[in-house]
UniProtKB/TrEMBL annotation:
InterPro entries in the record: KDZ (IPR040521)
Signal peptide: none
Name listed for the protein in its UniProt record: CxC1-like cysteine cluster associated with KDZ transposases domain-containing protein
Top-level taxon of the source organism: Eukaryota
Amino acid sequence: MTPKPNPGTRAALPSTTKGMGRHFTSPRKVRNPQKSQSYVSFPGQNSKRQRLLAHLDDLLNHKSTSVPPGEPVPDALPEDPAVDMETMVITDTEETGDHESRSGPQHIRQDHFFSSWKSIIPTIVRPHLEYLSETLGKPLARQMSSLSACSRNCDKRLTNITCLYFDSFASIAVWCCECVTLPQLLVHNGLFPTAPSQPRIAVSVELLGFYRALFERSCDAINALASALHTQYTRRGFHVTKADGGTILEPFRRSLGHAIQWYDMLQVEIEKNVEDILQECRNTIASAKSHTVPPSPSSSPRSPIKHDLSPGSCAPVLVQRCPACFGGQDFGHLLDNGGDIHVAMDGNFHHRHRRSAGDCPPFYHPVYFLPKPQVDNVGRRIDTARKRPPRPCNMLVPDEAIDQCETSYEAADGKKQKAAMDSFDDTGIMALICRHDIPLFFANIDTPGEQQKYSVALIEHLFSLIPIEANVVILYDVGCVLARSLMKYDILSHNITSRIRFATTAMHAYGHEWACQLVYNPRIVKGLGLSDGEGTERLWSRFIRLIGIERSSSRQRRIWLIDRHAASIAKDMVNDLGDWLRRRLKKGIQDQGSAAQKVLDECEFTVSELREQWSNQRAAQLSIRARMFFIYFF
């Protein structure tokens, strides 16, 4: 009989023998309940807290109240602007990690801070445009020592602002009154405030514009910009110190973060105003055209190739994002000949968001991301449809082959966990792009796997913006699996499924079964040309710099970063669309066409004979006998 180990020795500790050798675990020490469960209340603390909360509520509501008795009266403005740089501190990280509940004094202050910015942004659009029109094509003006824009004899109020420029920073005196607000006066003179009210620091608009251009070419690098400015100022003899002469390690990081974020919101507001004006012009032109007499068919005969096409137009948002794909007026090309529009989809699970990073109040309405309720509604509809018996359908590809494809690819397994949900609340994004690799829409993935609700939501949203006669070819890694689901279950309406043809992406196609490739490989399917569907991979390579920043940013800021970066990429690609088409025509059509023609010339068979042989081979390998062979051996 084995002797019992003595208490308190190592042998008496709990252990396990799994793995190599014996492993001991330290016991959990029992806490004293008198120390861990007893609450001590300090006399007068509760009443003091209530007084401070009431005073804070009065300040947030802009009420003039007296300071609670017994409390020191703070100064209106600090003597040294470098000591107290911001009156508001915004942190993205929540200690509890619960981003759903937004209660408490800190969240109230955050909501009020963001609301103040939202109310100020529309008021500084005109001053900013006036400054841009005055300085366009001119060298930068020299720094000013004071600012004032009063046209009447108003009571002026003096505010000392520390202004950050490219090469130095300086403190200027700003006189504001009832004629113009402090933010309007600063923006009109090329300075952007770092706080909505009572700012202590303002940043040069030219410096913010330079960072915006840098962000479009790289990624969000506020810490790098703040550190670089501090180093540049120090080397040039401009030191930031406290009132007692001590140095400040990071004097501009938080201020620059606020200025960059809300300066971008100013650009978004300007873009929205421009788009509203353009849309009003489009509506006016469309209304004028509707009153004109349409030309008779004899005066403008259609081409024989387009006699069966239907007139129509896509939504303006699609035409702006890719005029080559959606700017046409005739739709109805047969799917067997390639259809009208080619798009591609893919999911990426590197763009995650840590749950512990928390959230902030909503400040930006994304233009590329689908709303979460829209995606969740599609998911509920899919779950409801799958509870019904599947419809009988005649698939060209055997179900056994599609099952093998579904097993081979993780994207086809919506239940496979690709990210730990206890650590991440957003696990990735899914993109829809056109055949010219321009991003069209995104869907935020907040489930462990790549469920079909994201791809179906993107497809449904696309079809809501195109004419009812337009036919679409969709390239997807597991297009065969998604096509079978749409045929068996009532997920999308027949009006949509009848105008869709699925294909796999060119690179991923060779991982599918041969029977699947015969139907879904874009290099074999007729009418797809050189559309490979791999533009999503090229898009992900341009987003790679944002991965690390997204995980530690707030939820709202992550969506803002991706959405604004996608807008920058789309703008560059639209501007480069002509060169893109020229390169593809030269390398794709001319070079590859010449090489293919050379092979055909060296062959002893005609093109018609080769096509007939290929048609017979395809029919034989998709026949019932081939299916029985596949079932028997696999």
